[in-house]
Amino acid sequence: MRYDRGVEKRRCLERVINSQEDVVLTVGGGIVSEPETYNLLLLNCFTVWVKAAPEEHMARVVAQGDMRPMAGHSEAMEDLRNILVAREPLYGKADAVVDTSASTVEKSFAALRRAVAAI
Length: 119
Description:
The protein is mostly helical. It has 5 helices and 2 strands, in the order H-H-E-H-H-E-H. It has helices spanning 5-19, 35-44, 54-63, 76-91, 105-117; strands at residues 48-51, 96-99. Strands 1-2 form a two-stranded parallel ribbon.
């Protein structure tokens, strides 16, 4: 029997949606690559795309001590740019967008609060 991680993610999301009235949930950016799961999220949740420039994405990962994206891969930055460009139309389906590029944590949090307060 083959383990299907996408199915497990969708089932997990279904359990959260069915058992929680109010919840803040964070999901990885790759969720948009799983249409059924992403649609479930879009239909049942207020969604916010927390956007950042590719260079900031990479810098944040490295600042956390995770060197895997760069390890032995000289094209990592270009790959990240391509992934973000390809996913942008899907991310754009979110109910709100908070661009954290060149922003402090405090300013980003304030922008997120304003986006959520608008619902």
